[in-house]
């Protein structure tokens, strides 16, 4: 027993001796550091002590990102809290929903104060709101308020920095601590920290901000927007570089970057390391130190060579000839090159840790961008090489869709912001992420119409839905119905004879009451009379009586046979997103006049199907009435024969597709819009039986040839005003006409489904 205790004691003693000889030196060193900790506390660990970690780099290079002038995470958090004093804001706690119940989602912009400077970009934002369907001039009707004070640039070193914002907004009687207010911001903070500081307390206001940090972003309340330049177009915007449903050619470069290299300060770490992935072949990474006032003071040994290589390549050429584009953070998290890459169909490779991506609440960026990590920069080349070509193509096509749907103009950026906020007011009636991330996009899908995909004309093919097998005929009448010989009665008989007709709705656009039911012809389908308001835009109102997907729009003097109606409807069921009809017109650019022209000459080109005899989906009634601002509908009501042009422009803007012409047995003659009393025809409509003279047959290139008559002049004015409002010409030309199988073939009539279409 004594021997056993002796061995245990010797073993314990030997262990202490080994610990002292082999570990004592390190223990004394750590104890020394612990004593020094109270004397000099470090803001951030800098692992440059050679005794602790062998250094493989110059200590000065490692310390560069840890510039003592930069803020520590704790200090940055304190700066954020100074701005977001109501950091726990949610829609349920900081937004008054009751303001939106009576008048819906209306937005009020504060009136401009005399002498208050406003930047060009902020003027575009205010203009986008004021010319939209959301705007109201009455603050009592408003659900959301927009300040007239320019809050875009909150860098106090900037010339556009507005001072004393706190004092000014506290004097607004509508401010109410920021409740139900929306504040736009593109630049926050200043050198060297570039924090999210705005220089004033936003209170309970919603912040729509570029370069949003995920730590300061309040999910479900704030909105992250993209950083865009002052030259970003107000409306319309340039289209993407990849055509819809097209396969791009194989590009020369796999991965590219060309931009500034920050030598010191925040954001310099990532950009200083980009040269490591450059191989000069399919990966091009070019940086320059030559920017800023004192760049030569901080230049390193690489600067001169980098500056020479930088000038050898054109930025736009690299952008459009590469599959992937690196989008690193700048001084702030966002950068202009993000939108530039989207437009060029160059898949963004994001290297900006902590960036809340634009409209991430609605947009699935995993389908259009590669989100990388700044710490794993060297793995980016191998990661993008592993992406399958089919997925690369899907990425590229999605970049084009997102660019065109949400980012190509200031209007779309602002309207997307407002629609995201509007969706929060009624979650059961909000758009799903599928609607936001599929054609035609969330802005063109109205949740008030429906939330079921099968009710829209865009998703039949992708999801296996099909439109209803019946249609509703909508006949606009502007004159009294009399004997059975009148065109309207013959039209009712022909349409009601169709096996696909569910009902006939007559829009009575006359002050005098319609004839009694006994004077209307007997038909096999229900006939409903609706009293209109004598406005041309009434024919596209979403009447509750229309329950079928398909609408056959007709004028009272249209002449169609039952076979023509049946065939046109069968064509429309194959193309439910387009306008399908009989009489067509076309537009053209007149270089002599410098404006758009309009012609009815019978050529191989067509871009407009007149709604005097056309099928389309009933959803376009809701878009026409609820999506378009009131100003456009007033334009239609003021210019005769303009409503069908606007409907064609709207459908083309939504679908990016031209209309379809079908075979017609009889030649359509366009009515002349003449002011008349109600008894002889409603204002802006032809008298009963009155027709226009034949369209001039001069070449379309001559604007005078098609504008020789007053109606054509009005149509050209309408066309140009619509192009100005949309910011571009949405109409697309086509040479397609669809005929029945065996149409005019020398075969037996018994083999033809629509033989009557061939009769003169």
Automatic annotation (TrEMBL):
It is found in: Endoplasmic reticulum membrane. It comes from the Eukaryota. Its main location: endoplasmic reticulum. The keyword Endoplasmic reticulum applies. Residues 471-743 form the Glycosyl transferase domain. One of its GO terms (molecular function) is glycosyltransferase activity. Residues 663-712 are annotated as: Disordered. GO terms for cellular component: endoplasmic reticulum membrane. Residues 104-384 form the Exostosin GT47 domain. Keywords: Disulfide bond, Endoplasmic reticulum, Glycoprotein, Glycosyltransferase, Membrane, Signal-anchor, Transferase, Transmembrane, Transmembrane helix. Signal peptide: none annotated. Belongs to the glycosyltransferase 47 family. This is EXT1C protein. It comes from Zosterops borbonicus. The lineage of its organism: Eukaryota, Metazoa, Chordata, Craniata, Vertebrata.
């Amino acid at each position: 027993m004594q021997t056993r205790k002796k061995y245990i004691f010797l073993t314990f003693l030997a262990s202490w001796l080994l610990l002292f000889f082999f570990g004592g030196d390190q223990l004394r060193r750590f104890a020394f550091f612990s004593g020094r900790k109270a004397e000099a506390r470090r803001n951030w660990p800098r692992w440059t002590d050679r005794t602790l970690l062998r250094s493989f780099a110059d200590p000065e290079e490692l310390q560069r990102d840890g510039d003592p002038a930069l803020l520590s995470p704790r200090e940055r958090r304190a700066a954020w809290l100074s701005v977001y004093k109501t950091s726990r804001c949610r829609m349920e706690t900081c937004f008054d929903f009751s303001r939106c119940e009576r008048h819906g989602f209306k937005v009020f912009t504060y009136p401009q104060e005399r002498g208050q400077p406003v930047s060009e970009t902020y003027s575009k934002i205010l203009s986008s709101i004021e010319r939209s369907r959301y705007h109201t001039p009455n603050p009592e009707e408003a659900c959301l308020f927009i300040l007239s004070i320019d809050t875009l640039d909150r860098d106090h070193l900037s010339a556009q920095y507005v001072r004393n914002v706190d004092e000014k907004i506290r004097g607004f009687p509508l401010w109410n601590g920021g409740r139900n207010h929306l504040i736009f911001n593109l630049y926050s903070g200043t050198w060297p920290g570039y924090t999210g500081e705005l220089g004033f307390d936003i209170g309970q206001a919603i912040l729509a901000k570029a370069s949003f940090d995920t730590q300061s972003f309040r999910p479900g309340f704030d909105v992250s927007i993209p950083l865009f330049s002052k030259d970003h177009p107000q409306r319309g915007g340039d289209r993407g570089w990849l055509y819809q449903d097209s396969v791009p050619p194989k590009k020369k470069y796999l991965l590219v970057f060309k931009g500034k290299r920050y030598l010191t300060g925040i954001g310099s770490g990532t950009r200083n390391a980009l040269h490591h992935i450059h191989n000069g072949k399919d990966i091009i990474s070019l940086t320059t130190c030559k920017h800023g006032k004192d760049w030569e003071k901080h230049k390193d040994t690489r600067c001169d060579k980098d500056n020479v290589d930088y000038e050898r390549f054109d930025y736009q050429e690299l952008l459009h000839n590469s599959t992937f584009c690196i989008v690193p953070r700048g001084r702030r998290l966002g950068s202009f090159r993000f939108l530039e890459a989207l437009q060029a169909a160059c898949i963004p490779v994001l290297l900006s840790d902590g960036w809340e991506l634009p409209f991430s609440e609605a947009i699935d960026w995993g389908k259009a961008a590669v989100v990388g990590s700044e710490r794993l920069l060297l793995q980016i080349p191998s990661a993008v090489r592993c992406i399958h070509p089919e997925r690369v193509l899907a990425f590229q096509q999605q970049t084009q869709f997102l660019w065109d749907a949400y980012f190509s103009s200031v209007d779309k950026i602002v309207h997307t912001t407002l629609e995201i906020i509007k969706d929060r007011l009624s979650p059961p009636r909000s758009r799903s992420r599928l609607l936001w991330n599929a054609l035609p996009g969330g802005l063109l899908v109205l949740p008030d119409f429906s939330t079921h995909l099968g009710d829209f004309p865009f998703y039949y093919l992708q999801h296996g839905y099909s439109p209803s097998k019946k249609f509703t005929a909508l006949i606009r009448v502007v004159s009294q119905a009399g004997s059975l010989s009148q065109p309207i009665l013959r039209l009712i008989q022909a349409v009601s004879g169709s096996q696909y007709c569910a009902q006939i709705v007559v829009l009575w656009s006359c002050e005098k009451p319609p004839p009694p039911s006994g004077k209307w012809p007997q038909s096999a389908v229900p006939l409903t009379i609706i009293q209109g308001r004598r406005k041309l835009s009434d024919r596209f109102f979403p009447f509750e009586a229309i329950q079928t997907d398909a609408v056959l729009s007709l004028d009272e003097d249209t002449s169609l046979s039952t076979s023509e109606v049946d065939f046109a409807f069968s064509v429309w069921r194959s193309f439910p997103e387009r306008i399908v009809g009989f009489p067509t017109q076309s537009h053209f650019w007149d270089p002599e006049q410098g404006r758009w022209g309009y012609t009815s000459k019978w050529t191989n080109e067509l871009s407009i199907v007149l709604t005097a005899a056309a099928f389309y989906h009933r959803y376009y009634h809701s878009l026409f009435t609820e999506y378009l601002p009131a100003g456009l509908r007033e334009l239609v009501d003021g210019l005769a024969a303009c409503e069908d042009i606007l409907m064609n422009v709207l459908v083309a803007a939504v679908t990016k597709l031209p209309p379809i012409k079908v075979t017609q047995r009889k030649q359509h003659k366009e009515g002349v819009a003449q002011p008349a009393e109600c008894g002889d025809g409603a204002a802006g409509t032809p008298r009963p039986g009155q027709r226009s003279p034949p369209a001039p047959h001069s070449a379309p290139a001559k604007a005078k040839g098609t504008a020789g008559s007053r109606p054509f002049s009005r149509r050209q004015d309408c066309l140009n005003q619509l192009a100005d409002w949309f910011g571009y010409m949405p109409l697309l030309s086509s040479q397609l006409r669809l005929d029945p199988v065996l149409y005019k073939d020398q075969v037996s009539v018994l083999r033809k489904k629509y033989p009557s279409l061939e009769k003169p």
